[in-house]
Write a sequence for this structure.
């Protein structure tokens, strides 16, 4: 299954030339050498890829890859309904 984390990793490698070996769930975006402008570009790409809205006030370059994946997953269509059902 292609998870949000897998998609984020793919985008980091293909669009931002991040070395795949450096991408780990606990790696922060800053540790992956993404500056604030690159982080905004990543968020824009993720919004288009997943069809979600990323609130820049709730996110930062200090987020880990896992935190960003969880943030995106929580905002996917149907995520609210699934959370209510459980």
């Amino acid at each position: 299954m292609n998870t949000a984390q897998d998609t984020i990793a793919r985008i980091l490698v293909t669009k931002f030339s991040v070395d795949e070996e450096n991408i780990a769930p606990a790696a922060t975006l800053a540790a992956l050498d993404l500056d604030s402008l690159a982080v905004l570009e990543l968020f824009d790409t993720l919004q288009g890829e997943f069809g979600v809205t990323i609130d820049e006030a709730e996110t930062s370059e200090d987020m880990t890859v896992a935190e960003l994946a969880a943030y995106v997953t929580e905002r996917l269509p149907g995520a609210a309904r699934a959370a209510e059902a459980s």
In short: The chain has one domain: 4-85.
